[in-house]
Specification:
Layout lengths: L3 E2 L4 H7 E3 L3 E2 L5 E4 L10 E4 L3 E2 L7 H4 L8 H21 L4 E3 L1 H10 L3 H13 L12 H14 L3 E16 L2 E16 L4 E12 L5 H9 L6 E2 L3
Parallel strand pairs: 2-9, 4-11, 5-7, 5-8, 6-8
Antiparallel strand pairs: 1-8, 3-10, 4-10, 8-9, 9-10
Helix pairs in contact: 3-7, 5-6
């Protein structure tokens, strides 16, 4: 059955939209790399726990009135993505030593960096505008990441983040509100305060999520991508 994307006023959606049980394929990963990226400077990376990103006003989900309604299963899926990231990174970059999120969190707590981590979480929840949040984080968050880099001994930090979203599609006699989740993964160099590499992928649908597909999309092109200023 053919679907087409349509713009619907929020008041109309409130009366007629339903949640779809269909699943759409994950979008191909959008991968970007900074001209400053230097792989010879990286032998050890630390992965932070997944951070929540609020939807921004330019998101299609807000512009067309479709509101994300994440389920407990959606939150479990996000947790699984965070737990599986280290194996995906290690598969792509076997020469790197990878510090997993739980070990990173232990280092943060042991070295009294919890407040800095909370500041970073607040940035991701409140900064409007560009999806490349790490490029505009607060000085406090920059200082936290630099100190975390020092105590972890990592050359760079992998920051994964996500936001729940929704799109509206029209079928015969029905407006369908399809729930989704967007993921980003950024390689950040705290020493110079720059994002060196970033990938993103979106998944829509209420069916089974393909964990391996998302992990592969996020991690398989580390060190590659469209050259752009990040």
């Amino acid at each position: 059955m053919n679907l087409r994307l349509v713009w619907i006023l929020p008041v109309f959606l409130g009366a007629c939209a339903t949640t779809s049980n269909m699943t759409l394929p994950a979008t191909p990963a959008d991968v970007m790399i900074s001209p400053r990226y230097d792989q010879t400077q990286i032998s050890k990376v630390a992965i932070l726990p997944m951070l929540a990103r609020r939807p921004v006003e330019t998101d299609l989900s807000i512009m067309n009135g479709a509101q994300p309604v994440p389920t407990p299963q959606d939150h479990i899926f996000v947790d699984q993505i965070g737990q599986t990231l280290p194996s995906g990174v290690q598969k792509t970059m076997p020469g790197w030593k990878v510090i997993p999120p739980d070990e990173s969190m232990s280092l943060i707590n042991t070295h009294n960096l919890a407040m800095g981590y909370k500041n970073l979480m607040a940035d991701f929840n409140t900064i409007p505008g560009p999806q490349n949040v790490l490029a505009v984080i607060s000085p406090d968050s920059q200082a936290f990441l630099k100190e975390f880099q020092r105590i972890s001994g990592a050359d760079a930090v992998l920051v994964g983040y996500y936001c729940f979203s929704a799109i509206v599609q029209a079928r015969t006699f029905e407006i369908v509100n399809i729930q989704g989740v967007n993921f980003w993964l950024s390689l950040y160099n705290p020493t110079v305060g720059q994002v060196w590499w970033k990938s993103s992928v979106s998944r829509y649908g209420a069916g089974e999520h393909d964990l391996d597909e998302i992990i592969q999309s996020l991690t398989s092109a580390i060190g590659k991508g469209r050259i752009t200023q990040l």
